[in-house]
Every structure is written in C-alpha cells, then in structure tokens.
Amino acid sequence: MINSAAKTNGNLIRVLLSYWWSSASLQAWALTCALIICTGLIVLLTMQLNSWQVGFYTNLQQLSYPGFTTSLTQFIILSLVLVAASGSQTHFKMMLQIRWRQWITDKYISLWLHNQTYFRMSVHPDPVDNPDQRIGEDINLFVTHSLELATGFLRQIISLTVFAAVLWHLSGEITVSLAGTEFILPGYLVLAALIYSACGTWITVQAGHPLMRQSNVQQSNEADFRYCLIRLQEYGECVALYKGDQQEKVNLMQHLARIVATYLSIIKTTRTITWISSIYSQLSIVFAFLIASPRYFNGELLLGQLFEISGAYWYVHSALSYLIDSFGKIAQWQAVTDRLREFYTQLAASHRETKPRPAVFTSNKYKTVAMKNLTVLSPAGQILINNLTLELKPGESILITGPSGCGKTTLLKTLSGIWPFFAGKITLPPAEKMLFLPQKPYLPIGSLRKAILYPHSLTNVPNLTLKELLTICGLCSLQQHLDREADWSRLLSMGELQRLSIARAILHQPEWLFLDETTSCIDTRMEQAMYRTLKEKLPQTAFISIGHRGTLKAYHRWILHLEETGLWHCSDQLSAAGTGTWFANYS
Ligand SMILES: Nc1ncnc2c1ncn2[C@@H]1O[C@H](COP(=O)(O)OP(=O)(O)OP(=O)(O)O)[C@@H](O)[C@H]1O
Questions:
Q1: In the list 216, 412, 478, 570, which could disulfide-bond 335, CB 3.0-4.6 Å?
Q2: pTM for the whole thing?
Q3: Whose CA is nearest to atom 31 of ligand 1?
Q4: Ligand 1 center–CA 384 separation, angstroms
C-alpha cells in the first residue's frame, strides 16, 4: 500500500516536472537559468546597495559634498541595473510559468481523454470532484505558486548566505558571562537572528496549519458553486419552464453559504498569522538596533555601520522568516498539489483498469459482434443483464427492447468499451468499422459542417454531399447554414438533432451502426422514413438498435428482449420456430 502510494507520488512528480526532460527541455532549462541568474543578480545588487549606505551616511556625517555626489551617482547606476534585472526576472518567470502550465495541462488532458477516462472516472464509485477546475485552475495555481515559492526560496538562500557573512563580519565579538564564567561569542548577531526566526517560525506553523485544509475545502466549494452556475445556464430553458427560479436560488445560496463559512474560518486563521508575523516584523526592526547598540555607544561603530548592520540583519531575518511570510501561499500550494495528486491517482487507477482487457477482443480477425456469458452490472454491483450469449453476423440487424432502466443503454456502453462493470467475453470488429449514436446527440460548438463531420474532421467532403444529406434527413432549412458558427445543440430541436446524427451515420458509412433510441424524438412516420433511408444508404451495415416502438421491428431480423431481472430472450423474426437459431454458429 505504502509502496503503491510512493510509486504514484513518484509518477506524479515525474509528470509535473517532465517539462525539463521533454522535447522542449532546451527552452525549459534556458528560461530556468535566465531566471536563476536574474535572481542572483538582484540579491548581489541589493547587497551592494546595503553597503553603499556606509559611504553615504559617512559622507553626510563628515559634511563631504563631493563624496555625497559620488554616492548618489553610484546609487543611480546600481538602481538602474537593479531595475533592468527585476524586469528581466519578471519576464523569464512569466514565460516559464505559461510554458510549464501548457506542458502540464497537455499531460493531464491527454491522460483524461485517453481511452475515455473522463467517462470511466464519472462512473467511479468515489469520483474526484470538478476535474474541470483541477485542469483549468489548480494546475495554473500550482505552477504560479511553485515558481513564486522557488524563486523566493532561491533569493532568500542567496540573501542568507551573503548577508549572514556580512553580518558575521560586522558582529565582531561580545563577551557573555554565564554562572561566573565568561564566554566570547563571535557572530552573535547571526546567532540572535537564527534564534529569533526559529521561535517565530515555530509559533506561526502551530497557529497556521489549519490553513492548508481550509484552502483545499475552499477550492472545492468555489468549483461546486461555479459548476451550479454553469448548469443553470446550460439548463436555463428547462428551469424556466419548470419556473424553478426559487429552487435554483436556494441551491446557489447554499453553495455560497459554504464558501462564506469556509472563508470566515480562513479569515480567522489568516488574522492570527498576520498578528504573529506583524509582531514579529515590528520587533525585528528595533531588535537589530537593540543588540548592536552597546558597540555603537562604546564608540566601536559609526552611524553608517550601525545602519549597515541593521540592513544586513533585516535581510538575514527576512530570509529566515521566509516560511512565515509565505505561509498563506505555501498552504494554498499544498492544497492544489493535494488536489492534483488526488486527480492523478484516480487517472492512473482508471488507466490501469482500462488497459486492454483479456475479456474484450477487437481486431480485423473478427467479422462478427459476439458476446459469450456476458454479465453486465450497475456501478453498485446489481446484475442488469445475466449471462448473455449471442452473435451477430455482418449485415444482420437486431432490435433491443425492454422496460426502462433494465440495462439496454448499458449493454451498448459495454460493447463500445466504455463500461467497466461486466464479466464474460466480447469480440468486436475494429473500432473504425463501428459507430455509436447516443440517445442524446452531441454536437461540438462551431460550424454546422463540423457538427455533421464529428467525430472526424474530413475536410474534403463537398458541400453538395452535405446538402444532399441534410435533404434526405428532412433538414433542408439548414442547407444555407453549413458554415454558420453556433452552439447547434441549443438551436435545434431534439428531433432535428437526432436526424442530424443519422445524417452523420450515413456520411461515415460504418459497417456496424449502434443506435440508442436515436429516433425516439421523431414522429412514427418520420422514424420509418429515417430507417428506410438508413437501409437504402447503408445496405451492408448491421444495425444494433434500442427502441420502444413496435414499428421498428420491421427493420430488424432479431429481437433481443431484456427483463428487469437480468433475464433475456432472443427471437428470430425470419425463423418459423421464432427462437433458438441465434446461437447455432457461435463459437
Ligand atoms: N453512470 C451510472 N451510475 C450509476 N448508475 C447507472 C449509471 N448508468 C446507468 N446506471 C443505472 O443502470 C441501470 C440501467 O440503465 P440504462 O440506461 O442502461 O437503462 P435503459 O434500459 O437504457 O433505460 P431507458 O429505456 O430508460 O433508456 C439504471 O438503473 C441506471 O440507473
């Protein structure tokens, strides 16, 4: 168990960091190096500006005007280089951000779309929430925060090394007497900064750790709220017809209330962290002066040196307080990383489940659609179809009937390879010879031409062919709109959408056509016309239809009737005996 978790974590890290080992690695490393160089340069310039104070204040103290103007010139030059380095750092960081995000998003989308994983995950007993948000927003936050934290960390490490050395040098030695014994402490200012920051960090971590969980919950709350708004927009017509405005408002307000409640707890934790870090920062301003003042008042330090110590102390203290200052960002980074890990774990599990199963054979070798001892289950484990054995030869058609909810659609989903809950053996012809028309037609947003050609993107289909197709499917009025971009699934009626999917089937000429109540929203006369057209245009095609209307029997040789109990019964309309011939040739 621990091994598997460690393996998943290892794979996740490989996916997240694969940009640096990808085909675009040259670009990745070039941007990273440029970012590191700019960050290092900024710290070195900051150190120069800190040391510059010594000369500047000394010149002021000694009333030296030429020294004062030289100091100002130095300041202008250092500042100009610092501005250029800061601008370049921002440029390289943002470039790396968008390229890295693009890379990870591409990886996640590929994993999500591979082998219909998006569907399989939706029927998982415990599906992860809002995959859209994980891909769209969490990856973006992960990349942004990772780069912010990494560059911040790098800056603080260089800063700590450089300024700790400066501070150590400036500290000199102090003598401390403890229980009558005198100790000489070198670099006591560095030691003081270390102790001070360690105490502050410990207190902040204790007070702020709930923030990570709260951020995670808030990400989910925000995604749920947005999903409800999108659904309302999508089903606006239905909600309006039901006059469900009040119900929708209550639902949306409940989601908003969850966001507010979590936000209130985030406010509480953030307030505590802010109090701690403010006290800590305010004290640190005087702390450096306080512990360096004995040497100043002893005449061992000039005013400029006192300011230099204070500056160096401030940088060392800032570097050591990095965790405290970035606690909110670290908490959010941890939350999005957890959400990406959770999503990746389910993606990986889904991929393991969908590796070609020994129970399903798809190859050119198979000329038939056959099932042997096929048992189809619901996600809850309830048997929908029990021990089904049958074989369908090329060009033969079968009508699947049965009461609503008995498992007709699930049988087609099993044959299409997207339903994972089954036992038994299935053999199928190659995927490109089959076409599945779902009950609810799907049309991509775009031109009508793209909608008819979906899921292929054949570009060489002449307009005339497409117009003829629309005519024979009773959609003449759409002929003029082949290139009109729209959300066609909203504009067309259900019957029109179903006829458009029949046009799609005729265009693609499959050898095996699976129709899941594809004509359920069309009147009987038109339904008959559609089936006659299909038979005429696709004479060699085998039809596997689901339907409730008895009129469909005329277009199919076989009738498979499913019962609610999982039992089934198959009959041959051509055979005088009616049943039994189905299995004669099955091997
Ligand atoms: N994704 C899913 N998650 C949970 N249960 C599901 C899922 N898909 C189908 N089911 C259940 O499986 C059973 C069979 O559903 P299916 O859609 O196959 O029925 P059907 O015979 O095609 O019904 P209808 O004639 O009404 O279209 C139903 O009880 C349904 O609730």
A1: 216
A2: 0.72
A3: 405
A4: 9
What is the distance in A from the centroid of ligand 1 to the CA of 531?
Answer: 25
Report residues whose beta carbon is within 6 angstroms of any ligand 1 atom.
Answer: 123, 378-379, 384, 402, 404-410
Dihedral angle over CA of 408, 411, 416, 421, nearest 10: 130
List the CATH code of the domain at 360-575: 3.40.50.300
pLDDT at position 579 is 46
Q: How many CB atoms within 10 Å of residue 118?
A: 17
- Range 397-424 average pLDDT: 90
102 vs 331, residue with greater confidence: 102
Coil, strand or helix: which one is 574? coil
Which ranges constitute the DSSP H helices of 18-138? Answer: 25-61, 65-113, 117-122, 131-133
Instruction: Quote the pLDDT of residue 586.
Output: 38
Nearest residue (by CA) to ligand 1, atom 1, is 123
Cβ neighbours of residue 400 closer than 8 Å, sequence gap 6 or more: 408, 411, 412, 544, 545, 546, 547, 560, 561, 562
42 vs 353: CA distance, rounded Å: 51
Q: Which two tokens stand for residue 409?
A: 């659609």
Write the DSSP assignment of 23-42 as a string of letters.
TTHHHHHHHHHHHHHHHHHH
Which of the two residues, 545 and 234, has the higher pLDDT score? Answer: 545
pLDDT of residue 583 exceeding 50: no
The confidence band for 587, taking pLDDT boundaries of 50, 70 and 90, is very low
Fold classification of 1-354 is: ABC transporter transmembrane region fold (1.20.1560)
Q: How many residues does the chain have?
A: 587
Q: Which atom of ligand 1 is nearest to the CA of 562?
A: 21
DSSP string, 101-112: HHHHHHHHHHHH
CA of 562 to the centre of ligand 1 (A): 13
Per-residue model confidence as pLDDT tens digits over 99-157 = 999 999 999 999 898 888 888 888 777 788 888 888 988 999 999 999 999 988 888 88
Kindly list the domain boundaries of the chain, sorted by start residue.
Answer: 1-354, 360-575
Q: d(Cα 370, Cα 368) in Å, to the nearest integer?
A: 6
Q: Is residue 395 within 8 Å of residue 543, measured between CB atoms?
A: no
**82 Cα to the center of ligand 1, angstroms:** 65
Longest dimension (CA), the chain: 120
Mutation to probe ligand 1, out of 406, 412, 518, 549 (largest number of atoms < 8 A from CB): 406
Is residue 421 scored above 50 in pLDDT?
yes
Looking at residue 513, its pLDDT comes to 94
User: What's the rounded mean pLDDT across residues 553-576?
Assistant: 86
Q: Are 18 and 99 in contact (CB under 8 A)?
A: no
